[in-house]
Fold each of these.
Amino acid sequence: MFMSSLIRSVNKKIPGLLIFLFLFFNSSAYAAKVAIVNFADNPDYQNCRIVFSSLLKKEAANRNVPMEIVYIDTKGNMESFIKEAKAIENSVDLFFTVGRPSALALKEAGITKPVLFNAIANPVGVVVNSLVNPGTNFTGVHSAVPVNKQLKALQMVIMRVKKIGLLYSQDNPFSLAQIKKWKEAINELVDNQISDLEIAEFPIPASVDTEAALVEMFKREVAGNADVLVAPDDSKITNLAAGLIAAVLENNMPFYSSDTAMVRKGALLSLGFDYAEGAKLSVPIAFDIINGRSPAGISVATYPQYKMYLNLKTAQKIKLSVTMEAIKNASEIFKE
């Protein structure tokens, strides 16, 4: 009698016990750990990291996934970056980084854990094998703006352009690839008799490796030989930007840069991206990786929309009248 009562009692409790165990194990979700790392910075990259961190925490709470985020920022010190990245590699699920320099620093460090990158203009052949099938431990969001759209933005802001000067590092394959696309876009307009634009090329030799040397080259070769100066996203030009921009302004020359950060420094114009939107695209990819998907099979995403950066203070300095159409089309305007 006692045994049958006990069995009935246990049987009644089994469903409740199963529910308790289900809830217990599901509430004890795997604790994810993400490293947000930076080697070389600009305000856009910083904004992307901040938005990504915030959205990642929010989505982790929605999914009931405990989330730990660690940060590395060595401000350009490669030795420290490699040391710190290697030190935490075994304890994290993935590394998140923004921009080409930081992604390349992780590659240089020999990181084999998944790397989720953002805002690399052309990652193919650099950190992935293709956009559809990365085939490496890297995947993410790439940020290539079609050159024909950049050219259209330039012509909208600078109405009377005849000769476009292309400034680039002649020993940088990434810059050479961008310049090739610029020449193709310009020549297509000319061939179709849509425009009579001319091209003047100003390749920067490897020997020009200081700010003063680049300024001297600009004064000797560029000034007076083009109506507008165009530079791709080129690490040498970015690093030596201060002197170059000052020289360009002194010569009242409009300066278009594919690197949006240059507009804050005094370049007139750039067509880039809303980095906060790019950060949003990174979050679901991060959870795919946390849940076990290999980055090798996760296609690289593309920024959903473009954003025009315009420096009106520079326009005033070089005595350039900017149309209301251009101002209305600018997503970010700098006046100070």
Note: The chain has 13 helices and 13 strands.
Amino acid sequence: MQDQGSGRRTSPTAFSIYLRTGRRVDASHIEVKYNPWHDEENGRFTFAGQGKYFPAGSSAKVNVDGKVTRSDWARPDKDWVPDRSHLRADHPKNHSIYVVRPGDSLVRIARQRRGLTAYDLSWLNKHPINRPLVIGQRIKLPHQSYLDAGRTARAKFLALSNYMDTHGGKLPPDPANPPSLQSQILDSNWRKETKNGYDFHIDAIVRPRKIFGQLSMGPMAARSRRNQAQAGHPDRRRSDDGGHFIAARFNGPSDSFNHFAQDANFNRGAYRSMEDVWAKALREGQKVSVAIEPHYKGASRRPYEIAITWSIDGKEKNRNFPNEAKEPKSGR
């Protein structure tokens, strides 16, 4: 078919289709469409990502034996896929050369990089894991920045995948920086424990995240020395007490979820002074309700801050206490 007045061919001929697919077709029934993906063996169309990619303008023909040949087979990263060789671990900019010394092994060399294993070095250098190294042998040793970037990229990929799985396939507001996988898991799906009239919302690694309730001056609850001693491990400091979110004098439960690693000075100072205010209001017949939110860094079991809102006969106050040996940093 030709464009009138120009003589320029605007659609494929039956013959060109025969060369490309091996099929004889009626020229009047030719569907004008371009698909660059073809079967390598017979030249027929395939779905995108299957077979071989023939960019527009490339030359290809079907031999007498029915197989496709090309005079200009091109590297994918040259013609139709961006060159990403600079992202490979064996790219010169991503590693340095370490020269093996007496006593060296892949395990010993790998210890020079955080997160690197002997198996990683074995794969990168194509050196069998059980074969001893030779003094003077040159070993490719990835830069720490390259390893860190790889871990960051993997973490973002997993975080994005989890977000989409849990949000009906929707992307986060900033897909390039999705909420971390850790925060997605730990900041949702909390379970609730109710004990002695108080609600404790607990995350996947058994950390109290929110505590609510109306205080009472009933019989003092029994203490658990064991839970006090173990509170906050393994992140507990030597200067910490096993503190209570809800004190025993307010009938706070002795369960582990009512304990946290609390700086001793904070526990016996500002926190106790605040509790004394609550106790005084209760003795005067006033209603006191509290909402406590411990804040953590990452997966630490020791809160770095305790945010508390309390109400005495409807009059609300709040303070943020750093879990350190000093006074509250803010409040009103």
Note: Residues 1-11, 64-68, 70-77, 328-332 have pLDDT under 50 and may be disordered.
